[in-house]
Design goal:
The protein has about 150 residues and is mainly alpha-helical. Helix content is about 70%, strand content about 5%. The chain has six helices and two strands.
């Protein structure tokens, strides 16, 4: 399926690339936000920031599918991150950590949740884009959105 946005004709592939790029930028900014928050000091701030950095990098690797050696290990040990429900849970925890970082963190938490929820809303009209972004639990690629 395809959609016209002003004069640009967008198909499933272009939509998935847009969301993949937007997610990668958001995860990168989540890391920056955590580093800024960590620099303010405090034991709890450092711990929350380290968790945020780890989850953001974990998700960033899954979105970009790079580096290949790390993606291979993640496929074997943490395949949930490649499925929508798994990424949703990771993004939910990530957003909760970000909400504790005031200002920039709250903004990034909202953006992170907006992206993962926005991707779900695209699933019905653009199942091909959704299939490019996520695999279904159990390895099947037959999505149903009833």
């Amino acid at each position: 399926s395809a959609i016209s946005f002003f004069w640009i004709q967008m198909d499933d592939s272009m939509i998935s690339q847009i969301f993949r790029g937007a997610s990668a930028i958001a995860y990168f900014l989540d890391v920056i936000c955590a580093i800024v928050f960590m620099s303010k000091g405090g034991y709890l701030g450092v711990i929350v920031s380290l968790y945020t950095i780890a989850l953001s990098l974990f998700s960033l690797v899954a979105v970009l599918q790079q580096p290949a050696s790390l993606v291979e290990k993640m496929n074997a040990q943490s395949e949930f991150i490649f499925e929508y429900k798994g990424r949703f849970v990771v993004d939910l925890f990530l957003a909760l950590f970000l909400f504790g970082m005031q200002g920039f963190g709250v903004a990034m938490g909202v953006i992170t949740l907006f992206l993962i929820i926005g991707i779900r809303f695209l699933a019905s009209p653009f199942p091909g884009a959704f299939e490019e972004l996520f695999r279904q639990a159990g390895g099947s690629q037959n999505y149903r959105f009833d």
